[in-house]
Write a structure and sequence with these properties.
The complex is a heterotrimer of chains A (484), B (618) and C (485). Chain A is 75% helix and 3% strand. Chain A contains 20 helices and two strands. Chain A has a two-stranded antiparallel sheet. In chain A, strand 1 and strand 2 form a beta hairpin. In chain A, helix 2 runs parallel beside helix 4. Helix content of chain B is 75%, strand content 3%. Chain B has 27 helices and two strands. In chain B, a hairpin with a 5-residue loop joins strand 1 and strand 2. In chain B, helix 16 runs antiparallel to helix 19. A two-stranded antiparallel sheet of chain C has the order 1-2. Chain C has a domain of 209 residues. In chain C, helix 1 runs antiparallel to helix 4, helix 3 packs antiparallel against helix 4 and helix 11 runs antiparallel to helix 12. Classes of the chains: A mainly alpha (484), B mainly alpha (618), C mainly alpha (485). Chains in contact: A-B, A-C, B-C.
Chain lengths: 484, 618, 485
């Protein structure tokens, strides 16, 4: 069942490619049903997931390239189960959002489905080569989607985003190759690598170097501070469902791969870099927060806010204990859902007004009450209001990392205040205040298809805000296994 | 008993959800649902009150909780209910006064078509306030603390078309957030201390039991309590973080009555009472708290003197009364603080509701316009009469409840430093003066009444709550608060009872009298525009300007720096720089392609010689 | 001694060549060529190439010598013969697409192609230095003609001339090297040479001769100091010639280098590492960075072929069987991607009339299948996962890391990022820009089949590489196992 996850979207993309061009509704149906089927599969998997069982569940392993010891290996533990749920949610709602009218819908849906399938591939893979293959495969549909359907300076944004992330991926590939050589294991299997490292650990110099390479390599897509400049520009240029999927899910692959490769295989390497990573993440939180305050473009502001939120996750990885890592995974989930909702709202408004400036709007709460309530709820989730799972995750991270970095945590808490500063300023100038006559003919989300994405996303956020154990009972044993 | 408490907590939330989903455009149904729900909560509280033995309850409070979040090895965060005298008293206030105010706002918001959303937010507020009151651990208090902040943001900015309302909502939320930062750091510090001394959890009972002999250093305890006090300052609008309360008057009047008089601002004082064992353990913290309380009381009192908006005057009077309560707890007398909190809830809610009725009748908030309505006493008999009774209670005139609670605080003040007592007494005078000024201008002023038609009295729904609250503000003093709260560990014996009472009552009467004489004939503000006190007071001691400059020069400059750094250094220099370097290298290389074949042959030959040199001769 | 049965593939190829030659002489009519004649000519050559391919497959596992051991059949030669015949098979549709509605004759072009193929087949089985040189000269000469084939267009003549001048310089160095070695050893038989090299490796004459031969081959591969001709010739020459140059001629150069470097010359590992790592580093830098500023697509592909030569040279620097497997696999991947691009260019050439990148604007809108194939081929060249290019680069870089060439790997990875820039700018032009005129480009069924075959090859080599990997490893392993005694 789990094997189907990456291949249903690929099959759907192939079907759309074959379908005649003018049957646009057929394309939309194929795309949405394939994402819905995946969503159902993930829910079924969660339902059959036993958190107390250690190790990976639903595991399958087929020989792929025996010569190099590469297997097509799939399996789920608490961490990638949560991230699969996140991806199921965001891709399903993203599919509905990408059905909003645009030209050359057929190619767009093909690229979108390839991107979705590749991300499922990453989250279910257990073989390092397969993991890396799907990770870099996600880059390919991104470029044409942004270049063709993007908005402001799309060529520059698309190229910058792709080159930055490819650079990071290349560095990570360099690390993987060295890891493969040093282990001398002739196999890319993550579990065997883990066992082998415990038996004969590598010399500390390589471990520190490798951990550094992985942290920087995957830090690029996780928008670690100095390497973050692609993220706001990329999101501002991307169309709505691409920025939803990218800010929501792709950005979480960075920390996920850090967990899988750096924390699991080279723990003392990460300990070695912990201080620098913590300081960089703290700078990232404050710096991106302040930069967001000055932004005039909504998508830029949300781009910087997601850079600032990733800072918390990186701080949690730097501290690397049970509480912070489970907080990090929960924050990946909740920030993903929240960022997707925010971008969906901004996209909805942008589709009709083609304006994205913070001060272009005013009094939208009167004109489009449903969408502005979703935007306000998403902003409150983002600034860590209890009742949403973001708050629980941030709580876990602060509790866990206080003993090791008290100053950085206090600065991070101040970062939360800055987030509330610019988000409330955005809410006030967009939703509240006098009605802007320019947007008198703006219409709200009327049909079910319009409302469904927002209801699902915000519902998930509040469900796990009130009942965090729902996710944590899966995440915590997996994180425990990761650290032991 | 505990199931009752759980129902009290959850039914407002259910009401809020039902209203948002179904009743948003049916205001009357939403109004009656919200009021009915809260009134049911009030009935349940009465049932709890009837068969709760306070003696046993205060020593071994009832507690029921579930594990909400396990911190993986660090401890566990619970979500539960703690019932003791203190929480039952607060339950009484919140549900009692709350249902009265809900009833009041049904008719007050009659003609506002988005009243459905109003009642949803009010129920959400009731849910979060009950959450704070019933919480059994500090983290749960913090969670509901922020939810109360959210509901105050939504309600202050209820008429969001008005820019000033939206700004006020934002200001309130952000100032609360500043306080919450301090509180969060305090909780983390406390949690770290607990984790190291493996006390295990943050809930109050284990804390109270294990804290004294947990061996945490006195300095650390003072730091923790002061940091948590930051949160209290934010919520109960003590001096440095008080700027949001006067602007919060942008919200509808019942909101000001419920939140910014009776319940929400009292949450801070309630938290001080709840964590009293922690604060009591560090006398230096208590000392600072007392001083902040008295300074707030004094400053707010003086600021109220020059306000012309009736709600602003009441807002500043709330500020100064809150200062009193914080001072009382700062002087190690928890019961006096809570007693004053209860009585204050009654008469301040009454004053706000009566003011609301006056505004409703005269369609203006400015006391000088109100002055022009002829014989308001006769035409709005019930409103004016209840307003005057509320004023008397506020000033602390004997038969009214205000007198008893203020006496308690003043007698507690006698133990503190002398200067503190003098300031406390001067605040009594100030309170009497500005209330006197208000009453004489609105009711007793003899100047010509230009307004030809007279104000009309409000309908029954508004007057009934006023009457009930008037009764309580009279009888409030005799409620068995002491028995409910249980004697705090070392309630100081109150001596010098009547001498202090005579001084304070006389001060009250003198204040009211002078105000009466000064403003009986006055047409407009008495103090000159540019006289020193009026400038200082008009600008509210320049706190707002200070904070604006702080934000403009502190915050904005850092923001511009980081934005400029981002745009120039990170984007321009780093990424575009490398890109253009690569392109220029490409340019250099393609210049090698001269297109001249002889040049290619030359490079070919040179290449071979270099190879030979590389391998052969080295 | 003469056991001619090893020469079966060569005989079949010769037979087809003569058949075509006779058909051309009898029926060929220069004045007004009729389409039917051309189509039958192509079909016969297609069938002929399939025949040759089958015959090479028969000899896949056998090893043996013929003609007094100046002709050898071993796994390496079988691999390359297969490679050359498959390339030729793909060249026929490219030339057919390019030459329809052109003045120049397609038949003579195909004949020259077959002649080059014969040269390559004999090169693959050459066991004697002199025969080796002979075959190299056959190949280079036929490329002169093909480069200058479009007599009426100046750039084609200019590219032919440039290729001729630099090519002859390279042949001169080659001959000089062979002469030096022959002078030192006295025989041109490769095994004998091998003994001589083993006997006294440091001998000045031998090493100098070796270096001159490597320089000559460097020209063929397009390694750095000898690469300057590549962009100009690629820009001027007709598309089928450029296709065959970038795939066939480069593969021939790689083959000769493999044959000589690992079976004849004796270089210490450190010397070979030093020589080839500097060569590959310089080639990668020039290839990748040179391509950044290009506006003509063929010139860009020229620089990209230089960059790919750089990656191939990493395999030589690494040396042991892992490195050579990487080289062989990378060659397959490179060929598949390049042929796809050139087939698309040949089909589109008639409609666009210019090879500037802007002319390709909106290709995906004018014909989705051409756009999609172009997009996939560019991704494979860039080395994006899921395509053959990625696995080729992965193998080479894995071998480089195993061999300890860390900074070379890093340079290769930087090269990937830079190459992604210019490949994706072409993708942007194809997909995002508006086409000059919107009428769709017809793609007849025969071309669709070839395109699907090629793109299928790219995906199969990328996603299911196990069988091909074993083939390459076997060839590489045998290369080190059986010295030519």
């Amino acid at each position: 069942m789990i094997l189907l996850l990456p291949w249903i979207p690929f099959l759907a993309a192939f079907l759309i490619m074959l379908a005649p061009r003018e049957k646009e509704f057929l394309h939309k149906q194929i795309a949405v049903t394939s994402c819905a089927v995946n969503f159902a599969i993930v829910l079924w998997l969660i339902f059959h997931f036993h958190p107390e069982v250690p190790g990976y569940q639903f595991a399958h392993r087929y020989p792929w390239i025996p010569f190099l010891g590469i297997h097509y290996q799939v399996g789920l533990d608490g961490i990638n189960m949560t991230l699969c749920l996140l991806h199921a949610l965001v891709s399903f709602t993203g599919a509905i959002v990408s059905c909003w009218p645009k030209d050359r819908m057929k190619e767009y849906l093909c690229f979108y489905l390839i991107l979705t399938g590749a991300i499922y591939g990453v989250f279910t893979a257990l073989d390092v080569f397969q993991l890396y293959l799907f990770y870099e495969l996600t880059l390919i549909p991104l470029y044409p989607m942004i270049v063709i359907w993007g908005s402001k300076n799309k060529a520059y944004g698309a190229m910058k985003l792709t080159l930055f992330i490819t650079g990071g991926a290349m560095l990570a590939l360099f690390g993987i190759l060295i890891l493969y050589r040093n282990l001398g294991l002739q196999s890319f299997d993550l579990l065997e690598m883990r066992k082998n490292i415990e038996i004969l650990p590598m010399n500390p110099g390589t471990v520190h170097g490798l951990a550094g390479i992985f942290l920087v390599g995957f830090g690029v897509i996780a928008s670690l501070w100095p390497l973050h400049s692609w993220s706001p520009i990329g999101y501002a240029a991307a169309p709505t469902s691409v920025s939803m999927l990218h800010a929501g899910v792709l950005k979480k692959m960075g920390p996920y791969l850090m967990l899988r490769l750096a924390v699991a295989l080279l723990p003392d390497g990460v300990h070695y870099w912990a201080n620098t990573l913590a300081v960089l993440s703290c700078v990232g939180i404050l710096y991106a927060g302040y930069a967001a305050v000055k932004q005039q473009d909504l998508k830029f502001m949300i781009g910087f806010s997601s850079v600032s939120h990733m800072g918390y996750i990186l701080l949690a990885i730097a501290v690397m204990n049970q509480a912070t890592l489970s907080g990090a995974v929960l924050l990946m989930f909740s920030h993903g859902v929240m960022a997707a909702t925010t971008f969906a709202c901004i996209g909805f408004i942008y589709e009709q007004t083609h304006a994205r400036g913070v001060n272009d709007f005013g009094g939208l709460a009167k004109k489009i009450p449903f969408i502005s309530t979703c935007l306000i709820m998403a902003s409150f989730a983002s600034l860590g209001l209890p009742g949403f799972s973001n708050f629980v995750a941030e709580l876990l991270i602060f509790f866990g990392s206080w003993s090791q970095y008290p100053i950085i945590v206090s600065l991070a808490i101040f970062g939360v205040f800055i987030t509330s500063l610019y988000l409330l300023r955005m809410v006030k100038s967009v939703c509240y205040g006098a009605e802007n006559p320019r947007w008198s003919l703006l219409h709200d989300a009327r049909t079910i298809a319009d409302k469904l994405p927002f209801v699902i996303l915000l519902g998930a956020l509040m469900l796990f805000g009130f009942w965090p154990q729902g996710l944590l009972r899966m995440i915590q044993p997996a994180v425990g296994a990761l650290l032991s | 008993m505990l199931t009752l408490a759980w129902t009290i907590l959850w039914i407002p939330f259910i009401a809020a959800v039902l209203i948002t989903l179904f009743l948003l455009n049916k205001p009357r149904a939403a109004g009656w649902l919200a009021t009915g729900v809260l009134f049911a909560g009030f009935i349940c509280t009465l049932r709890i009150l009837s068969h709760a033995q306070f003696e046993s309850l205060n020593h071994s409070p009832l507690e029921s909780s579930i594990v909400w979040l396990s911190l993986g090895g660090h401890g566990v965060i619970e979500f539960g209910i703690l019932l003791n005298g203190l929480s039952i008293l607060m339950l009484l206030i919140v549900t009692g006064i709350g249902s009265l105010i809900f009833l009041y706002s049904i008719s007050y918001m009659k003609e506002d078509k988005s009243a459905g959303r109003y009642f949803a937010c009010l129920s959400l507020f009731a849910f979060s306030m009950l959450g704070i009151v019933l919480a059994n651990n500090l983290v749960q208090v913090f969670i509901f603390w922020e939810l109360v902040g959210l509901s105050s943001y939504l309600l202050i900015g209820f008429w969001y078309e008005k820019d000033s309302a939206a700004m006020a909502g934002k200001k309130a939320f952000l100032t609360n957030r500043v306080g919450d930062i301090g509180m969060m750091i305090g909780i983390l510090l406390l949690f770290h201390q607990i984790a190291t001394n493996h006390i295990g959890s943050v809930n109050f009972l284990t804390l109270e039991g294990r804290l004294p002999h947990a061996g945490i250093s006195e300095g650390m305890l003072a730091a923790i309590s002061l940091l948590i006090f930051c949160g209290v300052m934010g919520k109960s609008a003590q001096v440095p973080l008080h700027v949001w309360l006067p602007d919060a008057m942008e919200g509808p009047t019942p909101v000001s009555a419920l939140m910014h008089a009776a319940t929400m601002v009292a949450a801070g004082v309630f938290l001080l009472a709840r964590l009293y064992f922690l604060f009591a353990a560090s006398p230096s913290a208590l000392h600072i708290i007392a001083w902040i309380g008295v300074v707030t009381a004094f400053l707010a009192g003086t600021m109220a003197l020059v306000q012309n908006d009736i709600k602003k005057i009441l807002a500043y009077s709330t500020l100064s009364q809150l200062g009193y309560m914080v001072m009382a707890i700062g002087l190690a007398d928890r019961n006096a603080g809570m007693f004053h909190l209860t009585t204050h809830a009654f008469f301040k809610a009454l004053l706000f509701l009566a003011a609301g009725s006056l505004i409703h009748g005269m369609h203006t908030q400015d006391i000088w316009e109100m002055r022009r309505f002829p014989k308001t006493l006769k035409h709005m008999l019930v409103t004016s009469f209840t307003f005057l009774m509320g004023t008397l209670a506020l000033m602390g005139i004997p038969p009214f409840s205000g007198y008893f609670s203020k006496e308690e605080i003043l007698s507690a003040a006698t133990h503190g430093p002398k200067l503190l007592l003098i300031i406390a007494l001067s605040v009594v005078f100030l309170t009497a003066f500005y209330m006197g000024r208000l009453c004489t201008i609105v009711f007793f002023s003899q100047t010509a009444k230009e307004e030809h038609h007279h104000a009309h009295e409000s309908d029954g729904f508004i007057l009934f709550p006023l009457a009930v609250l008037a009764v309580f503000s009279i009888a409030g003093g005799y409620l068995p608060i002491k028995e409910i709260l249980g004697h705090s560990a070392h309630a100081a014996a109150h001596h010098g009872g009547n001498l202090l009472a005579i001084i304070s009552v006389s001060l009250g009467l003198i204040g009211f009298g002078t105000a009466f004489l000064v403003f009986r004939k006055a047409q407009g503000p008495v103090l000159g525009e540019n006289s020193f006190p009026s400038i200082v007071l008009d600008h509210k001691y320049f706190f707002d300007e200070l904070y604006d400059d702080l934000i403009r020069y502190g915050q904005e400059s850092i923001a511009t720096f980081s934005d400029a750094f981002e745009r120039h250094v990170v984007v321009q220099f780093a990424s575009n720089g490398t890109a253009s370097a690569a392109r220029s290298l490409g340019q250099l290389l393609s210049r090698l392609q001269t297109g001249v074949v002889q040049f290619y042959a030359l490079v070919f030959a040179v290449g071979v010689t270099v190879l030979v040199f590389l391998l052969m001769l080295r | 001694m003469m056991n001619l049965r090893y020469l079966l593939p060569e005989w079949v190829a010769l037979g087809v060549f003569i058949l075509l030659l006779i058909a051309e002489i009898l029926k060929g009519d220069v004045k007004h060529p009729d389409a039917q004649n051309i189509r039958s000519f192509c079909i016969t050559s297609l069938l002929g190439s399939i025949l040759v391919c089958i015959s090479t497959l028969l000899f896949l596992k056998k090893t043996g010598t013929a003609f007094g051991d100046s002709f050898i059949v071993d796994p390496l030669s079988a691999f390359f013969k297969l490679f050359f015949i498959l390339t030729l098979f793909m060249m026929i549709p490219i030339s057919y697409a390019f030459f329809n509605k052109r003045r120049e004759r397609l038949e003579t072009f195909l004949l020259i192609l077959w002649c080059t193929l014969l040269g390559m087949f004999f090169l693959a089985s050459a066991n004697d230095l002199f025969v080796l040189f002979l075959c190299i000269e056959i190949i280079t000469l036929s490329f002169y003609i093909m480069a200058a084939y479009l007599k009426h267009e100046l750039p084609s003549i200019e590219s032919g001339l440039k290729y001729l001048i630099i090519g002859s310089l390279a042949s001169a160095f080659l001959v000089f090297g062979i002469a030096l070695i022959y002078a030192a050893v006295g025989s041109t038989n490769l095994p004998v040479l091998h003994q001589a090299f083993v006997a006294h490796p440091g001998d000045r004459m031998l090493v100098l001769g070796m270096l001159f031969i490597i320089a000559g081959l460097g020209f063929k591969i397009g390694a750095v100091p000898f690469h300057l001709w590549v962009p100009d010739v690629y820009e001027g020459a007709p598309i089928p010639t450029v296709a065959f140059l970038s795939v066939g001629s480069k593969a021939a150069g790689i083959f000769v280098l493999l044959r000589l470097l690992f079976q004849v010359f004796v270089l210490t590992d450190s010397q070979r590492a030093l020589l080839f790592s500097t060569l590959s580093a310089l080639t990668m830098i020039c290839g990748n960075f040179g391509a950044l500023k290009q506006t003509s697509l063929k010139r860009l592909l020229g620089y990209s072929s230089i960059a790919h030569a750089g990656y191939l040279l990493i395999g030589f620097a690494v040396g042991y069987s892992g490195g050579i497997t990487g080289v062989l696999y990378y060659l397959l991947a490179y060929a598949a991607a390049n042929l796809t691009i050139f087939l698309v260019m040949a089909i589109v050439d008639r409609h666009l009339q210019s090879d500037r990148i802007e002319a390709y604007a909106g290709l995906a809108q004018r014909s989705p299948i051409l756009g999609a194939c172009f997009f996939i081929a560019l991704l494979s060249l860039a080395g994006v996962p899921g395509t053959a290019g990625f696995f080729g680069k992965f193998l080479i870089l894995l071998a480089a890391v195993h061999g300890g060439f860390l900074w070379l790997t890093l340079l290769g990875l930087v090269g990937v990022v830079v190459s992604l820039y210019y490949y994706l700018s072409v993708v942007r032009v194809i997909y995002a820009e508006e086409p000059a005129y919107d009428e769709a480009i017809p793609v007849p069924l025969s071309y669709r089949l070839t395109l699907i075959l090629l793109v299928g090859g790219i995906f199969v080599l990328g996603l299911f590489p196990a069988p091909f990997l074993l083939g390459c490893y076997h060839t590489a392993f045998m290369l080190f196992q059986t010295p030519l005694s």
